[in-house]
Design goal:
6 helices, globular, 32% strand, single chain
Length: 222
């Protein structure tokens, strides 16, 4: 059973204090024998003012837990800034080989994206366009090192904000994410690819509600 928990930082909270607050809750969870895998992505600093990707400037953490039961973890759901707890189905179309120690930051940078289904299509069409059109295109166009695709199956609390998809796209280096000619390809294809990504994304997402974040990842267990 894979669960994802989203927690937002307080407006008056610095990035360092936000990470300390998340660490104080998440790190002790690694000692829980019921938890098989534990990791999180987090906004550690403000995104660049100018970027090809319209990063949100709010602070957020996405905590991933794998365990044998479906019960939500109360110590997270009671946190100030709790956004939601989600049971998800994971797919890894491309995956890195983890060679770094537990607790160390994952190399490179990560694009965390939260999104909702487009309103005028049915759920089957949403999944089909996401999985069978957008995913192959992303793998072809972007230098993805690790692509963690999560379909939200269930909200684990009554007060969770609804999201339909939570995706983490890892690049080996920051420049592969920030440099548009590395992220989309060379000058001969970049404009065509950018337009293709935009039109494809709008075909299955509620585009106005998409939230992309610049994050880094930490593995704590598993």
């Amino acid at each position: 059973m894979k669960q994802i928990y989203l927690v937002r930082g307080k407006k008056e909270e610095s990035y360092n204090l936000f990470k300390e607050r998340i660490d104080s809750i998440v790190k002790p969870m690694a000692q829980d024998n019921h938890i098989l895998n534990l990791s999180y992505t987090i906004t550690e600093k403000s995104p660049p003012k100018v970027s090809i990707i319209p990063f949100k400037k709010k602070k957020i953490a996405s905590i991933t837990v794998k365990k044998n039961d479906e019960k939500a973890i109360e110590v997270i759901t009671q946190l100030q800034g709790f956004e939601g707890a989600y049971s998800v189905t994971e797919a890894l179309p491309v995956a890195y080989e983890k060679t770094w120690a537990e607790g160390e930051k994952t190399p490179g940078d990560c694009l965390l994206t939260l999104f909702k289904q487009k309103k005028n299509i049915d759920y089957k069409t949403f999944l089909d366009r996401w999985h069978n059109s957008h995913t192959p295109m992303s793998l072809k166009y972007h230098p993805l090192w690790h692509y963690n695709r999560n379909v939200v199956d269930e909200l684990l609390t009554d007060y969770s904000v609804r999201w339909d998809g939570i995706v983490e796209e890892h690049m080996r280096t920051r420049s592969e994410l920030m440099n548009p000619f590395k992220f989309f390809g060379g000058p001969l294809v970049i404009l065509q690819r950018m337009l293709h990504v935009y039109t494809d994304t709008k075909s299955f997402l509620d585009y106005k509600t998409v939230e992309p974040y610049l994050v880094v990842e930490y593995h704590l267990k598993g």
